Amino acid sequence: MKILQKISILVAFLAITATSVLAQETQNVEVSATILSAINISDKQDVKFGNVAAGSNPEIIPNAGNTDVGPNAQFGYFKIEAANNQSLNITWDKTGAFDLTDNSSNTIEYTPAVYYNNSSNNASGSSSLTSGTPQQTSSSGELYIYIGGKLDLKSETSGTFDGDFTFSVVYD
Predict the structure, then answer these.
(1) Cα dist from 62 to 27, 47, 69, 87, 110, whole Å
(2) Where are the domains positioned within the chain?
(3) The overall pTM is greater than 0.70
(4) How much is the pLDDT for 119?
(5) What's the rounded Cα separation, in Å, for the pair 101 and 11?
(6) Which CATH architecture has domain 40-171?
(7) What is the spatial distance between Cα 79 and Cα 73, in angstroms, rounded to a whole number?
(8) What burial class does residue 93 get, using C-beta atoms within 10 Å of its C-beta: 0-12 exposed, 13-18 middle, 19+ buried?
(9) Which of 116, 138, 111, 113 is nearest to 127 (CA)?
């Protein structure tokens, strides 16, 4: 009788366990993606201070004008084309002052000033931009970046000084 009870308990246990093992649930997971147009950068123009006098304080401010610069001075510029009304993260590798050098390794200090406008290609209507601060493209997918800055002419050394810095643009 004890053996029969043990067998009955074992059969009941196996029946309960088998029912639990056979219980199953399913869940569907939807996968979606929004493909945005590629980011395109065009119409690049370099920053040029022109011929400046030693001891002057040359400055180019895209939305306000120039001070102590040569007659052919120009602010830098490029146009970004991306998806309409999308946030872009714009960064550059040299966010503070950095040195421009000449052929003899003499240096002068350049501090960039970067501006943006997403409503038109109009530097005078642009606003100051900080590296890493997202900005939205226009309804036609455009964003304009303007680059100016100032030179610190600590050195009285004459010559042609240059340098560069790199911008990166990604969807935010």
Answers:
(1) 56, 10, 13, 23, 15
(2) 40-171
(3) yes
(4) 82
(5) 89
(6) Sandwich (2.60)
(7) 20
(8) exposed
(9) 116
Q: What percent of the chain is modeled with pLDDT above 70?
A: 87
Q: What is the DSSP letter of 171?
A: E
Higher-pLDDT residue of 16 and 130 is 130
Instruction: Tell me the helix, strand and coil percentages in the chain, rounded to 5.
Output: 15, 35, 50
Q: Phi then psi for 87, rounded to 5 degrees?
A: -80, 130
C-alpha–C-alpha distance, residues 88 and 116, integer Å: 12
Strands (E), the chain: 40-45, 59-61, 65-67, 76-81, 87-92, 98-101, 107-117, 127-128, 135-136, 142-152, 167-171
CA atoms within 13 A on the CB side of 57: 1
Phi then psi dihedrals of residue 13, to 5 deg: -65, -45
Task: Pick left, alpha or beta for residue 21 (phi over 0 → left; psi -120 to 50 → alpha; otherwise beta).
Answer: alpha
Residue with tokens 């000033």: 113
> What token pair was written down for 74?
């120009």
Q: Tokens for 38?
A: 């590629």
CB 147 within 8 A of CB 62: yes
